[in-house]
Amino acid sequence: MNYTIAVIPGDGIGPDIVEQAKLVLDKIGEKYGHTFDYTEVLAGGAAIDAVGEPLPEATIKVCKESDSVLLGAVGGPKWDHLGGDQRPEKALLGLRSALGLFANIRPATMFKQLRDACPLKEEIIGDDGLDLVVVRELTGGIYFGKRGRDHGPNGEEAYDTMMYSVDEVKRIAKVAFDIAMKRNKKVTSIDKANVLENSRLWRAVVEEVAKDYKEVTVEHLYVDNGAMQLVINPKQFDVILTGNMFGDILSDEASMITGSIGMLPSASLGESKLGMYEPIHGSAPDIAGMDKANPIATITSLAMMLRYSFDLEEEALAIEKAVEEVLEDGYRTGDIMSKGMTLVGTKEMGRLIVGKL
Ligand code: NAD
Ligand code: IPM
Ligand code: MN
Predict the structure, then answer these.
(1) Helices 296-308 and 313-328: angle between axes, nearest 10 degrees
(2) Binding site as annotated, residues
(3) Burial letters for 263-290: b for 16+ Cβ neighbours within 10 Å, e otherwise?
(4) For 73, 109, 160, 292, which has the most beta carbons within 10 A of its beta carbon?
């Protein structure tokens, strides 16, 4: 088969990790007889520098016309002085919205080889590591509510509103319950219903949706407790269902349990097969261009692309197995390095994974 992929390297370590991911996908194509056609497009700081805006119309068009989108990361200190809509991050938010990608799937799965990179004690993490999924609502909540700056009686003020509609909660809750049905049949919905009105609506809708999934156990946690539970007892979780901002924060936290933020892939999905695939981490300006970035999250994001957008399960598993084998051989980038292992750079890690395929 022939698949078209819009590729957004972006900023910072984005180009470094995307380069390795493409080599992995090329190898998959060669081995399994698929062609992956890449169209590289501009977004984020790179687009600001080239054409003066973070998300050019042409980029949205190419993404919409492609079978899926691969994104590295956007943003960096160079553009931090810019106002809200001019910032690189606006590209990411704009793409999620333009493509209708309301469901962000972030699996926090620990490779058993990375036990030593996990900062939690042995008795907390046990023998079988961590395997949970954060299902994060991605096109609503405080990220997309009414916002602005005013001059009020007390001087300058700024506001961001957090709003969810019943339908928005319903569709993301269904995604979480469907995923739970294929896993350990437990959904933990995380909100702030003791304070926020939209969280009370969220909780009520989740309870309604749960009635259609009798086999699934449902729990509700307040986000402050949820953040704490992730550290003290992460294995109680199967599927975490949460809103846009809480999901952003909790998935970074969960990623560290698996060893590093450089290990966590993501899929952003909507109603169609077109998805956007990206690591959950950012552009890591502190290590950009130094051949230090861990490309694994980007590479396993490709596995998610093959699985969710192209229904190529065997190929997806081949990528995940290749990553595991390289870790088993003891190779580590700096972020997951531990005693007795062999330190490698971004390019070498990519080359090793391709080698296993
Ligand atoms: P970050 O995720 O870029 O970096 C946080 C820390 O993790 C840094 O120490 C970094 O070196 C390390 N890190 C991240 N990815 C790594 C990898 N693959 N390998 C090894 N180490 C890695 O978060 P930040 O510093 O808060 O943000 C930097 C920029 O990225 C900001 O402009 C932010 O807005 C942007 N950002 C973009 C995305 C995205 O494009 N999806 C996501 C998060 C942040
Ligand atoms: C992420 C990032 C983005 C988010 C930013 C860069 C807009 O942190 O993808 O996790 O908050 O969604
Ligand atoms: Mn984030």
Answers:
(1) 160
(2) 76-89, 96, 106, 136, 224, 248, 252, 282-294
(3) bbbbbbbbeeebbbbbbbbbbbbebbee
(4) 73
Q: At what angle do helices 14-32 and 296-308 cross, to 10 degrees?
A: 50
Q: Which two structure tokens, joined as six digits, stand for 310?
A: 């192209």
Kindly give the confidence (pLDDT) of every residue in the chain, 357 residues in length, as a single tens digit, with 9 standing for 90 and above: 999 999 999 999 999 999 999 999 999 999 999 999 999 999 999 999 999 999 999 999 999 999 999 999 999 999 999 988 999 999 999 999 999 999 999 999 999 999 999 999 999 998 889 999 999 999 999 999 999 999 989 899 999 999 999 999 999 999 999 999 999 999 999 999 999 999 999 999 999 999 999 999 999 999 999 999 999 999 999 999 999 999 999 999 999 999 999 999 999 999 999 999 999 999 999 999 999 999 999 999 999 999 999 999 999 999 999 999 999 999 999 999 999 999 999 999 999 999 999
Distance 159 CA to ligand 1 centre (A): 25
The residue behind tokens 């809103």 is: 243
ipTM over 0.90: yes
* Strand pairing class (103-109; 265-269): antiparallel
Q: Domains in the chain and their CATH numbers? A: 1-101+267-357 (3.40.718.10), 119-257 (3.40.718.10)
Q: Is 193 helix (H, G, I), strand (E, B) or coil?
A: coil
Angle of CA points 299, 303, 306, to nearest 5° = 130
Residues forming beta bridges with residue 40, ordered by sequence position: 7
**Residues framing ligand 1 (Cβ under 6 A):** 13, 73-76, 89, 92, 261-262, 278, 281-287, 293-294, 297, 335
pTM of the entire structure?
0.98
Gap between the terminal Cα atoms of the chain: 19
Per the CB < 8 A criterion, the answer to whether 216 and 180 are in contact is yes
Q: 248 catalytic, yes or no? A: yes
Give CA–CA dist 177/240, Å, rounded. Answer: 10
Taking a C-beta distance cutoff of 8 angstroms, is the pair 86, 48 a contact? yes
Give the integer Cα–Cα distance in Å for 20 and 66: 21
